[in-house]
Amino acid sequence: MKNITRLITILFGICALMLLSACERPPIESKQTGYRGTGMDQVSNPRTDAQLAKINELPPAMPSSPDGPKASAVYKNVKVLGNLSTAQFGAFMVSMTSWVAPKEGCTYCHNVQNFADDSLYTKTVARRMIQMNQSINGNWGDHVKTTGVTCYTCHRGNNIPQNVWFNTVEKRGGNMLGNTNGQNDPLKTSAYSSLPNQPFSSYFVSNASAARVIGDTALPNGHKATLQSTENVYGVMSHMSSALGVNCTYCHNSRAFTSWEQSTPQRIQAWHGIQMLKDVNSNFMTPLASTFPSNRKGPDGDVAKANCATCHQGVNKPLLGKSMLQDYPFLAPSNSKPKDGNQIAKN
Questions:
Q1: pTM of the model
Q2: Lowest CB count within 10 Å: 97, 127, 203, 331, which one?
Q3: Contact 275/339 with Cβ under 8 angstroms?
């Protein structure tokens, strides 16, 4: 009898550990960020914050002098950043290598027998990614502010950023449920919820829908949204919350989720971030489909694309708001493509 009691106690303990393994150990901290009584608090865990701070440490900078001959005058086939001095150009190549391919080194993009050779697809991609950095920093200040981005913001020492997405391919054949739209398959991308785990193709590419389900008037004549589109909206909102490590009330007033006037300023900034992702995925990533080999593509034959977690990686400001552009100012040209802020009402 004692052995049976001991066995039951052990099994109960194991079950309790399994159930509580997904819960955060207290104490946790909360800070009121909005109107009193609306639940507009941001919750944080000191232990998680310490881990995130370590993950978001800046890599050492590579100082260089702008003096001396230009890279385009010394090296062959320099199609971007040719206006840098050879010292700046060399230092940036070393930095870029450590950010994207620390194990492979220069050979990840270059034929070391002929550095001017363009035979490696990674070199073509790298050129385009430099231009993408310049576009983000020059044209999307409404989202990235003066902090900006570099290759390290997303890559963090990995050839492929850890947080990217591909189109999903509907699985058919013997499945009585048909197209489940990625539901009940919890993934980190959707905050481990039972909501659609890949809603990004609905919102983070050009001509995408607005992430909105609540109308201004009552049914049946008001705004209508299907159950599936509503689930997609909640899926992408869960992703954004998880990617930034924040609650819904970081952007929304809980008493009036749809009201822009009663929302926090971060909601406007988040809207610009969604528009930025549309630009990045549609104008920089997707056109590279013919450049990438098949082993770097998704099941639909598409290339990896960005979402909020690609840059943010669990914090509301990538790299905790620390800028690297003071060391790489050539990645931040002046704004050359102004945007109409009035588009908020339409998108």
A1: 0.85
A2: 127
A3: yes
Query: Is there a domain that residue 11 lies in?
Result: no
Residues 62 and 94 sit within 8 Å (Cβ to Cβ): yes
Closest-CA residue to 307 (of 211, 200, 210): 200
State residue 43 phi and psi, 5-degree precision: -100, 135
Contact in structure between 129 and 92 (CB atoms under 8 Å): no
Token pair of 72, please? 């385009």
For residue 74, pLDDT beyond 90: yes
Mind listing the pLDDT tens digit for each residue in 106-150?
A: 999 999 999 999 999 999 999 999 999 999 999 999 999 999 999
Assigned domain for 77 exists: no
The domain that holds 256 is classified in CATH as: 1.10.468.10
User: pLDDT tens-digit profile of 190-238?
Assistant: 788 888 888 898 899 988 778 888 766 666 666 677 788 888 899 999 9
At 225, list the tokens.
Answer: 């949204």
The per-residue pLDDT for 339 is: 44
Residue 295 lies in a domain: yes
Give the integer Cα–Cα distance in Å for 109 and 119: 9
Tell whether the torsion through CA atoms of 59, 243, 25 and 49 is positive or negative: positive
